[in-house]
Specification:
The protein is of the alpha+beta class. The protein has four helices and ten strands.
């Protein structure tokens, strides 16, 4: 049984200790059409950079490249989509047709303000795709730190390793 709690920064900040490690946001069971939906959405003002890491090119995402890349995964080195949401940088690497994954450095999350931005981004993705959105540690994709289910129900992993329902301001 889930304990119902209000979103409380003190209760969840352990998930985002700013040690430089990455957290991943996952959208599972995706298709090429989901990627196209994502690219169309991000091109409306969220994309800061598109290109190889450390390459400074501000431009729209090349849809033809994304289509080609996702169909020829074994032959290409992925471009990075850099997404800026206020002060938080989120990276997306289109390397897998069946999953959309975003990377966030814990150094980006300094307070509940940045965390709220991440939650809002996750909720926007949930609404856009009507699929669960999960936050995990890199390499620990089977353990959800936070999940926003497709119906909007939200859960977080507490320090005692139990999932608890929470609410956040949308």
């Amino acid at each position: 049984m889930l304990n119902k709690v209000q979103y409380n920064w003190e209760e969840i900040k352990w998930i985002l200790i700013p040690d430089g490690s990455l957290r991943n946001i996952h959208i599972d069971n995706t298709t090429i059409n989901d990627w196209k939906l994502l690219i169309d959405f991000l091109d409306k003002g969220f994309v800061e950079l598109f290109g190889k890491q450390h390459q400074i090119n501000i431009e729209n995402i090349d849809r033809n490249y994304i289509d080609y890349y996702l169909l020829n995964l074994e032959n290409l080195d992925a471009e990075t989509i850099h997404i800026r949401i206020d002060q938080v940088l989120i990276n997306c690497h289109p390397y897998n047709e069946t999953e959309i994954e975003f990377d966030i450095s814990t150094k980006e999350i300094k307070s509940n303000i940045e965390f709220d931005l991440i939650l809002k981004f996750m909720n926007i993705m949930r609404l856009k795709f009507q699929k669960p959105i999960r936050l995990t540690d890199v390499g620990e994709e089977d353990e959800n730190l936070i999940i926003i289910h497709s119906n909007g129900k939200s859960e977080l992993l507490s320090k005692d390793r139990n999932m608890k329902e929470f609410k956040f301001n949308q």
